[in-house]
Design a protein that fits this description.
Helix content: 40-55%
Shape: globular
CATH architecture: Alpha-Beta Barrel
CATH class: Alpha Beta
Number of helices: 14
Radius of gyration: 20 Å
Structural class: alpha/beta
Oligomer: single chain
């Protein structure tokens, strides 16, 4: 094992491409204690002692969705009493609660595939947000939402993205990636071919110069091979355009979901799995995709700190009134940037506040 792992380390540190078999080997056989130092070495070589974060708020503009993923506790069909869609005025009011008071520079806006909304809603929404808050980077919509709006509007994804960019869209989050395998997606309630669709939408965005993020959801019915294929698909697209700004592996939250009841998954993946996915992601992507986020939202502040020691170099963002994770029964609460700064400094590292495009806003001395 030592010789094989050393070859992997040498490949990764030198910027080479780790193979599918080597990724599976790291998932299934290498102790976490051996992966951590390799990942941390690569991370420090990329960003030194700096760890970035963003002043962000998440805006869940609707919970009505016709996809109905088995792993989601947030969606509603539109018939329930707690179904909702925010008007543009309500969205502006919600942003106003946090924008000036907390210096928000990133707005993550996503909800569900709501069949009653058309392209004009999104264009008007983004335009008004951009008009009222011109320095706020709109990090908006999942690939599922984008694909649906494209089909409903009878225009190509590329043409849709041009319209949304002109209205104020700046970047696209990685939601909807899950695991690309069709077999896995069928089990978790995603349409066949939706993994390829995610990659296709992202490629269209990258070809237009629109930056995006990438994600992977683990801890459900996937295999190590599925995760390896997922990581390599993202790396392949990154090598083509360099359009991914960051990668976040996050663990499935089973509470109140159909997947919990049908698959008997009662608990989310533990700390070993969280840190293993962070470390392997860093080793696989290296400098090709230099930013790995901690995914603290599903794992807590303490695990966020550990993730930094296992290869992550971006905390992610502050949280104000997020609704998707709490729908599973897991309380998240709000996280202000003072807590993030303190958590990074306690590791002897330097917090760097960034904007939506990962440009430095302010550095806080250690």
């Amino acid at each position: 094992m030592d010789a094989r792992l050393e070859r992997i380390r040498e490949t990764a540190v030198s910027g080479g491409k780790v193979s599918r078999e080597e990724i599976i080997f790291m998932y299934d056989y290498v102790p976490l204690s051996r992966l951590g130092p390799i990942a941390h070495e690569i991370s420090r070589e990329i960003s030194g002692d700096h760890v970035s974060f963003v002043s962000n708020m998440i805006l869940n503009y609707t919970n009505i969705c016709n996809v109905r993923c088995h792993f989601c506790a947030f969606y509603r069909t539109g018939k329930e009493e707690d179904s909702y869609t925010l008007s543009i005025d309500q969205v502006i009011d919600e942003i106003s609660l946090y924008h000036d008071k907390y210096g928000i520079t990133q707005l993550l806006i996503q909800g569900g595939v709501n069949p009653s909304l058309d392209l004009e809603y999104y264009k008007d929404l983004f335009s008004e947000i951009h008009r009222r808050f011109p320095r706020l980077g709109i990090h908006g919509l999942s690939t599922s939402e984008i694909s649906f709006i494209s089909k409903k509007s009878r225009i190509t994804v590329a043409d849709l993205l041009k319209e949304l960019r002109n209205a104020g869209l700046q970047t696209i989050p990685g939601a909807g990636a899950e695991i690309f395998s069709d077999e896995v997606r069928k089990k978790i309630g995603r349409p066949a071919g939706s993994g390829k669709e995610w990659l296709s939408v992202m490629e269209s965005a990258h070809a237009l110069g629109i930056k995006t993020s990438a994600t992977m959801m683990f801890g459900h019915v996937e295999s190590s091979g599925d995760k390896a294929d997922h990581l390599l698909s993202i790396r392949e697209l990154q090598e083509k355009y360099g359009g991914f700004l960051s990668f976040t592996p996050w663990n499935f939250e089973p509470g109140n979901t159909r997947l919990q009841h049908e698959s008997g998954i009662d608990y989310r993946a533990g700390g070993d799995a969280v840190l293993r996915n962070i470390a392997i992601s860093r080793i696989v992507f290296g400098r090709e995709l230099p930013i790995i986020q901690t995914s603290w939202l599903t794992n807590g502040v303490g695990m966020g700190q550990l993730a930094i020691m296992f290869g992550a170099n971006d905390w992610g963002g502050t949280i104000y009134d997020e609704k998707v994770i709490p729908a599973t029964g897991r309380e998240v609460g709000n996280l202000r940037k003072e807590t993030i700064i303190r958590s990074i400094k306690s590791l002897g590292l330097v917090p760097v506040e960034r904007d939506n495009l990962y440009r430095e806003v302010r550095t806080f001395s250690a």
